[in-house]
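Reading a protein record of the kind used here takes only a little practice. Think of the row as the fold of the chain written in a discrete alphabet. With that in mind, consider the following protein and its fold in token form:
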Amino acid sequence: MMQMQITPVVKNIIILNVFIFLLLFLPLGLLDQFGEYLVMFKSNALGFRGENFRDYFKPIQIVTGFLTHIEPFHLIFNMLALYFIGVPVEQSIGSSRFAKFYLFCGVISGIVIVFLDPTPNPVLGASTAISGILAAFGIMHPDAKISLFFLLPIKARDLFLGAAVISAVLALFQMVDSDLIEMGRVSHFGHLAGMLAGALFFYLEKYIPFLRK
């Protein structure tokens, strides 16, 4: 297994996400009277989607959506996942290619969420792009065993396929039963879109000059 010394793009992504979180959280999030407005602003102005999203949607939200986190635990969980699986993927494909890969996963999954996600809830956080990294790790290192957040070690391929199946099933449940829309406050459709984008990157980069090495 590769050494887990943090790589430059992963490091800069973490710094950027933390900076944006602190920039939005510290001025308002610590003040109870403004906390609700902060959540509304993050969800509606920065998120991928929301009720009546067409009334305020701007293309920049496709980017801000995967750079913004609502609460500290949300940020910490995503950044730890990015570190554990992002570092070996960046080491494997190189920093320049990894940066393009991360942006591709975040932007493509954002577009898919905006126009195809059946649920009305806003989607925020880096987990869509990180789901793409999980797909890449499973494709490139299928037999490598990884352990995230103190879970038992599991082969990368099995983790990727298992996560994809679970996300697909839960997204389907949310599509057919509106009572499940709030299920875990997790965008299962977004995670699935991110994994599909991650797998699609390696096919499309052969045909799109910008995505090539």
User: Anything to note?
Assistant: The chain has one domain: 8-208. Residues 31-38 have pLDDT under 50 and may be disordered. Residues 8-29 form the longest helix (22 residues).
